[in-house]
Every structure is written in structure tokens, then in C-alpha cells.
Amino acid sequence: MSETGKPHVAVLMGGWASEREVSLMSGKGVADALEERGYRVTRIDMDRQVAARIAEAAPDVVFNALHGVPGEDGTVQGMLDLMGIAYTHSGLATSVIAIDKQLTKQALVPHGIPMPGGRIVHSEDLYAKDPLPRPYVLKPVNEGSSVGVAIVTDESNYGNPIRRDVAGPWHEFRELLAEPFIRGRELTTAVIDGPDCPRALGVTELKPKSGFYDYDAKYTEGLTEHVCPAQIPPEIAALCCDYAVRAHRVLGCKGCSRTDFRWDDEQGEAGLFVLETNTQPGMTPLSLVPEQARHAGMSYADLVEAIVAEALGRARGGGIAGGGDGGR
């Protein structure tokens, strides 16, 4: 505990994933907010000695601000479970499922949550023929922040079929998920755990100024317009909130999550599809969860404190030290 009687929080950030820089920004924001509120904070940049560094710090709770592997895929969650240390966000089983887009489909679709069809393809096979009719989307099975996403159209410069000498995720990943391209609008909804049940914070529409909502558009200021709340029909907003809360519950998410959608506005409710649920949304100045929280009357520091309090309350109430997946 700090001199103020508040918990000692280790903020885990950075690491070696493709989203390292974003994680460092998230971690800095979280750590600064907690220090301003009187918490004792230890900042830890993830490395191979992370277990020893966390054990030395001996925090009351770890705020997991990592993005990508190994921070979101269950690896760090399993380590902290073994160490008996409480941590924020989702536990091991949820993290394993949610980071894998195909496993997420298998979990959510049977519960009536619509997601695009598609299949796993070997990257080598793309040089012989298209896996789906164009236009279609290729994405890594277990990366976030739109890392490695390619939209293949008749007009694209990838070739038909895709040429070996053209740069793309087929050179970086042995397998990719191929999905039909859904025209229309990019929407997202954040969910946070409350005292009684998870609640949706709202709906944001994302309007990239060029191209699509890729990694650069997400994290470069000025490249994407955030319309919050989204200017969409109330029934679509309600459906986004419903699907996001249901996904949060079905997957067993904890603390907060963010569910991303594509909406074909010519198809009404039938045109709304969940793309994925992010179990550890970004906490940078451009991140969507803090933005939606502000519109819902919750400051950035309030949001961070609420996530920490949820993790500590879950650890005490469930008789477990870590994030766990109780309630799945």
C-alpha cells in the first residue's frame, strides 16, 4: 500500500510485440493517472525477466497495459495466475479465445452474435488462387490493431492471384483468416464491468481520412475522425451495445473490453457484423475506450481506477489472486 492507503500498482507495458509503442503510450497514461490519484506505481517494461521483476516489486495488483502477444494471448495471464498476483482485464482462458479470431467466431456465433464468414488459408495457397470471391479481407488470426490486414479487390495492386513479389501479410504469417469484405461503416463499442453487471459506454463511428482503419489510422493523430456518439439510427446503436455486452459476457471478459463492427447501412440491422472483441483496449490519448468513457461522464483517471478496483474486488471476492475467468 502507498502512504495514502491506496494499492501498489505495477503497470506492465511495452514488450516485444508489434504493438510495443502503443502499449508504452497506454502504460504511461495509466501510470501517470494512478500517481496523480495517490497510488504507488511501479512501471515495468516487459522483458524476459518480467516474472522476477514483478516478484521484486511485490505489487497489490498488476495493470496489464500490454497489447498483442504475449500480453493478450493468455501467456502473461497464466504467469500471474501461477504467481498468485491480481491483475486487470481478462484471464487466461478468455485471452486465449478472444485473441484468436477463428476461436472467437466459434464462441460467439452460436449465441446469435453475427460475424462474417470465412476460413483459414495457408499464405502459400494465395499465389495459386483467391480463397474467396473478391473483394475479401486477409488478416492474421491472432494480431490486434489491424496489424497485417489487407483488403483484396479487383482494383488492388496485389495481382490476381496475389503475386509472390508483392508485399503483404502473406509474407509475414504462415496462415491468414480470409473473410468477405463488408462494405459500409466502422463502429465500435466499449464495455466496462460495473458493480452489478457489464455496461456499454456508447458507440463511436470511425472515419479514416484515407484508406481503411489500419494501424496508422488508429494511432496517428489526425488520420481518423472519431464521431462519438455515432450518428446512426437508435436501433443500430442499441444493437451494437447489446452485441458488445453479450460478447463480453460470452467470452468471459473482465474489467473492460471493446467490440468492433462493420455496418452495411443499406442492409439495416441485418448489415451489422461483429469483427472482434478486444480484451485489452488501448489507453492512449487517441484510444476509443477513454473517449467513450468521457462521453459517459467518466474521466480517464476514473476509468483507470475503476479497472483497478474491479481486478482487486474480483481477486478478493473469488478467492483467487489473478484475473481468472470466473463466471464464464
Provide a brief overview of the structure.
The chain has 328 residues and is an alpha+beta fold.
Q: Count every beta strand, where a strand is a DSSP E run of 2 or more residues.
A: 14
Remind me, CATH topology of the largest domain?
D-amino Acid Aminotransferase, Chain A, domain 1
Provide the domain count: 3
What fraction of the residues are assigned to beta strands by DSSP? 15-25%
Structural class: alpha+beta
Please tell me what the overall shape is.
globular
| Gyration radius, rounded | 20 Å
Integer average pLDDT: 90
CATH class of the largest domain: Alpha Beta
Q: Could you name the CATH homologous superfamily of the largest domain?
A: ATP-grasp fold, B domain
Ends apart, CA distance between termini: 31 Å
What CATH architecture of the largest domain do you see? 2-Layer Sandwich
Percentage of residues in helical conformation: 25-40%
Low-confidence stretches: 212-220
Summarize the biggest pleated sheet: 6 strands, antiparallel
Number of helices: 9
Order of helices and strands: EHEHEHEHHEEEEEEEHEHEEHH
